[in-house]
């Protein structure tokens, strides 16, 4: 009887489990169908408007303005919305134009107004406030673009009543048109290009649409609904569909111009070199060296690894650093039985923190340090590094202490499941590999299977003593191709030399991107590889596509108006606070907006946006703020903020791609759980440091 009862219980439990699995399968199927429906709706939306709407025509008018003379351009279409957008291109001083209050009437400038007038008598019925556009007096000639959103709500309210009244009075001047008037207020001729957008995107609508796009992107990535590269492509094309809906569809060449080719070239060049370098066995030998140096003490080993990554990221850019150090880290963790994904995430965090130290350490710093207005404020390689040094070093030490207490137990857990997952991922990759690409992957797969077997027999590397681990690593890890290694050293030496020379003012032709590409070509020549496919197959193409799509999305958000709205809100708020608190408020706003924006938009796009805001704050005559503290705040925010999410920094995405090649998946959630609290901590440290040295004291 007892046996029968037990049998009934087991049968009932099995039926319950099967029912639960069936329901789970149904729910999963429903979610898949829902995802496809949402994606199809997005596809139908942007396809409809991209097919129906032609690319926006510029309608630019080249205007030659004689001294103290006026020029008028009639609008072809009356505005139907709240705003009219005017764009002027020419030898324009953007800073003085944005801060017109501090300029003198005698400075070279053009006064621009929007007016409505009667066609017959040319009588002015309505006139906007004057927009003063200041020109650059001296050479060299540089083309800059400024734009102005002019509110025409008052004109819209009155125009119908005015037309009706004049028609009822029998006035023959009933037709009303609008024109743009330009007056050259100097004694020198000036030339500008004028573009009139009669119905631009309403800033309020643009802000909501921009936020909606960002939420959509992060929902797709954070909940792993779609691959991050595909998610970025889908959302960026949806943004282009929105622009098309608003009659602002950009041309294809214009869209391509939004992509930061320099960043993609830098990544591509370094990926090619690291792919070739991995065949030499150097990464295996470096992991052996690091383990020997630590004498088997795991946390001493991790301390060396983290600090080495952080400090070297300051000399190289951190993307290059993670391309080289992540393969070493993966091999080392597998050899000594550590949680690989956890250690790789920590490595990336230290690369972002350490990369903040110098102008060449992180892409946002490169963007900041090469800006002409930042250079004009007195920022150079030396004082940039000096001002960032205390905040970076203190942050690295505190972060290591926090990581020790948070991960000291987790670092050894989940080893068996991690090995099984790595084996499964490698087996999937092997199915798609060509025969000539399978050798190294098969060797690695065999090694992982051996480690899993040892773990199940309780003889993992984590349980062995130091000498046993060291002998095992010596047997397996060695240089496989010494000649190729020498060739790689030559190419990497060239690349690093060019990176360092990039900061020398006289070396104008060297960019980080060209240095990486030229070094990659040099290595391809020296290596004399019979088959280029083997190298190109290891390039993280999905990472490059992800960044390209993200650049397009960011510029689309600029066109929609989200970026301008944020900029205006920041400046208006700083102007409204007490004079004695404006520097403190400006530093905190720049720091935290840069950090949060870097985490959720990406530190390269947010740096481009915040650089404009910072320059406007630093050059605002009403505020009279020093530029340099704002520059340091922006650098700290962008670099430290990149640790907040998986897509916050280039190094994060690149590291996740490399780890995936080795069978270790780093998803949005696992990175966010560790990275976001560390990001908040380091930004708080940077904020305290900046307040002490620039508000309590005046180091600047």
From TrEMBL:
Record-annotated membrane-spanning stretches: 30-52, 205-223, 230-246, 266-291, 298-316, 388-406, 483-504, 510-529, 541-563, 583-609, 630-651, 671-697
Any single GO CC term annotated in Swiss-Prot or TrEMBL for this entry: membrane
Location relative to the cell: Membrane
Membrane topology: Multi-pass membrane protein
Main location: membrane
Domain Citrate transporter-like: 218-637
InterPro entries: Cit_transptr-like_dom (IPR004680), Diverse_Ion_Transporter (IPR051475)
Coiled-coil residues: 416-465
BP GO terms, sorted: transmembrane transport
Keywords linked to the UniProt accession: Coiled coil, Membrane, Transmembrane, Transmembrane helix, Transport
Superkingdom: Eukaryota
Protein name: Citrate transporter-like domain-containing protein
